[in-house]
Amino acid sequence: MNNTIGKINLSGIKKFKSGKVREIFDLDNAFLIVATDRISAFDYILRTLIPHKGEILNKLSVFWFKATESIIENHFITDNIEEYPDELKEYREMLEGRSMLVKKAKPIDVECVVRGYIAGSGWKDYQKTGLVGGIKFDNLKQGDKLPSPLFTPATKSHTGHDENILFEQMKKVVPEKDAEFIKDKSTELYNFAHNYARERDIIIADTKFEFGRLDNKIILIDEIFTPDSSRFWDPELYKPGGSQASFDKQFVRDYLLSTDWDRNSPPPELPPDIVEKTLKRYREALKRLI
Fold first, then answer.
1. If we measure between CA atoms, which residue out of 225, 177, 183, 228 comes closest to residue 204?
2. Is the pTM of this model over 0.85?
3. CATH 3.30.70.1660 correct for 14-104
4. Which is deepest, 106, 181, 228, 237, by most CB within 10 Å?
5. How confident is the model over 128-178, as pLDDT tens digits?
6. What is the DSSP string of 91-111?
7. Architecture in CATH for domain 107-253
């Protein structure tokens, strides 16, 4: 399929980092973040690109950063190409719609997950231990709504799988006062977005945030409430007791699990119909939320 961007290099612009989906460039006074059309699953970057995915992720993050700035400061500066440094203007066609300038914060190496419903690794943990985030629950079914949202942090791995940890363990990695602040802000952000999305026919089942330090403050960084970082469920089809109809990349995970892929080698290519259906789900999330 056309209109896809997988790898990005900008001549004369220093690349700071290449993530699973985003390319980050160092502009001295700011970072340029460019969302590609790559998609990852089970800690692998897939060979198949999803057309326009980067644009959708970028647009949603910009929307949410603006919508939540009264809750906590974030790193977003602008996504207006006219406000970019002159040396980036020649890359307008590549950058427009899928990039943003952000403040340079130092990341805090904890994945900050908030769960309103039981799914994913939270469900796997519960099946093994009967606990979610260290709290005991009786008779939960997959997809059940939790009595109240739970903050369930995870170690942020750069090479392997993220590992769920207890909040008490997080406080050994992050100063206690900062950990409490991050927990409170993560929960507040989730509650705000969950209520907003529910009015627009999307259930945000869970999500993850990243925070960073800037000028002795903790701010929100990376992406926020996208189909890559959140589970978006269809409320009309919501039924606890199994997997849910979704508008996120769980669809790709489910497809890969249906193949004979061993999860210890590079994943197979995605068939065209899976690419089309994935893009359709991401577009539907964007349409409903904005």
1. 225
2. yes
3. no
4. 228
5. 999 999 999 999 999 999 999 999 999 876 555 678 999 999 999 999 999
6. GHHHHTTTEEEE---EEPSEE
7. 2-Layer Sandwich (3.30)
